[in-house]
Amino acid sequence: MMTECAFIIGDVHGCLKQLEQLLTYWNPDSEKLFFIGDLIDRGENSRGVVQLAMKLRKEYGAVVIGGNHEEMFLEWLDAPINHATYYYPRGGKATISSFLGEERFHSLSHTDLSKALQHFFPEEITFLESLPDYVEHEGYLFVHAGIDPRRKDWRDTEKMFFRSIREPFYTKENKSGKMIIFGHTPTRRIHPNKKDDIWISPCKTKIDIDGGAVFGGMLHGLHLKENGEYQLHSITSNLEVRDHTFLL
């Protein structure tokens, strides 16, 4: 498959150090940069990740796709009392603390935390609100979680499925006509024998690049080459680098 060179980064989840290391393998002069979603939650520096992604979009035209954790954050921001119980234990506490500090998180009410974030970080919030559900890139589809295989036209997939679907997508036939690169489901859930390596579907039309970085796994960066070759750079939790080149 001939395509414009691209570099696609898996679920970061606040793992800024791994992201910074991975970006040293990206060539901004020849590769367009994509993030597959879930920049935030669980990891220690969601604020740093968001601000770096904003800079990369502004300066290099990087494309950032929205994930379910960006969606959860925005839902909490809009109605903090209603969503706090669900959001906080799913990484929300870490994200809010990275923006406002641990002391504020523990001393302010849900509503005041939301108001403080909107007051001090309006640009970051606007950025997260602007993220698309998917991006088409020549013969590829980049999406956080997947598409609804029941739809005649995959573009009619509901927003919640683009950002949250799991087994009903990756276990079913891909009729989209696209090579789909996605995240959301840590690959250890699909092929536990290979732990955090990327997952390639048996039909070779779906690639999962969520290496579970925030769970002690790997942050994957997948290069798409003009000759149809794939090159993978993976950063482990202790910042070791693993490389792999392959064809489909």
From TrEMBL:
Its cellular-component GO annotations read: cytoplasm
Give GO terms: molecular function aspect only: bis(5'-nucleosyl)-tetraphosphatase (symmetrical) activity; phosphatase activity
Q: Which GO terms describe its biological process?
A: RNA decapping
Q: Which superkingdom heads the taxonomic lineage of this protein's source?
A: Bacteria
The UniProt entry, under InterPro entries, shows:
Ap4A_hydrolase, Calcineurin-like_PHP, Metallo-depent_PP-like
Q: Which Gene3D superfamilies match?
A: 3.60.21.10
Domain (Calcineurin-like phosphoesterase): give its ranges: 8-187
Its recorded name reads: Serine/threonine protein phosphatase
Q: Which organism is it from?
A: Pueribacillus theae
